[in-house]
Design brief:
The mean pLDDT is 91. It is elongated and about 95 Å long. The longest helix has 22 residues. The strands form 3 sheets. The chain has a 5-stranded parallel β-sheet with strand order 3-2-4-1-5, with helices on both faces. The chain has a 5-stranded mixed β-sheet with strand order 6-7-12-10-11. 44% of the residues lie in helices and 15% in strands. It folds into 3 domains: 111 residues, Cobalt-precorrin-4 Transmethylase, domain 1 (3-Layer(aba) Sandwich); 150 residues, 2-Layer Sandwich (Methyltransferase, Cobalt-precorrin-4 Transmethylase, Domain 2); 72 residues, Substrate Binding Domain Of Dnak, Chain:A, Domain 2 (Up-down Bundle). With 349 residues, it is α/β, with parallel strands linked by helices.
Amino acid sequence: MCALHFVGLGLHGEKGIPLFAEELIRRADFLYIETYTSPVEPGIEDRVAKVLGVSVRKASREFIEDGRLILEQARQGNVVILVPGDPMIATTHTELRIRAARLGIEARVVHNSSIISAIPGETGLHIYNFGKTVTLTEGGPSVPISVYHAVHQNLLLGMHTTILLEYDSSRNFSVVPSDAFKRLLEAENDFGYNVFAPETLGIVTSRIGWEDQQIIGGKISGIQTMNFGGPPHAIVIPGKLHFSETDALKALLKIPEDQIRDNSSMVKRLAVSMVTKYLDKTRSALSDARSRASTLTGLHDLFENVELYLSDAERFLNQGQFELAILSVGYAEGLLDSLRLTGQMQINW
């Protein structure tokens, strides 16, 4: 039967091939291995060939992304693509699987462990407390805007964030953790939501599943310049910690208790920043308008209503009702601006 098979190698190279996938690999008419999504030990093609008695061809990123030859071969026989980790973590493989389905080609997946599932197990952080996973890549703006905002949104929910650091086997290139921390701290200077600071608790995982794997955690200021070894790397920014997660960080990662903190407790909400800014601005404009309104009559009630709206905005802000806080300060601004629109007074914003 003709089909396209994606087989995960997990985190241990050819040693991670599931037993029930061995026969599938031996019967493959076309067998490929891709190593661009994550590094594997050199010579894996020869080792697979020796252990299973098959010939393996290395597949480049461009070959997989193009996919036309693979799909044509899958019409004629069984195609197996060996993939480090879990095959469907990479969007390239998902896209190829979708193309196969559209062409009526059967596509099967043999799942395996991946860095996404391994990080909670290695760190002791609960998997259901992780939010959106992001990748920090080379190039583009020096400030990783999308990564910064993803971590910000996760922290607002008290969630942990895994930041995968780009790895490119074709250039033997990877983003190193020290450079990643430097760029993320620079992003903090631009946005100022208290997402990254020298005191922020961070965890760096290196080469998970390899014999020389490392996991180092602590304050960014303390670990930023450490030697984290070779790729692949990932950074974890914990959010709100359950007491058992705190115990795990101390016992498993040997992070001193005084370096373990709830990163989410310091993060600023965008709404809080907005309301605080506009509250100060509107109060200043109200004070100025009152000082210049001594010769005008009939404005007392209007000024009183502006003050009431500002008080409501502060109350809603303290209660965490951010939408109502923004609406209230907006009403206050609107009332003051009506004086300018009716020609009664120039408002100095």
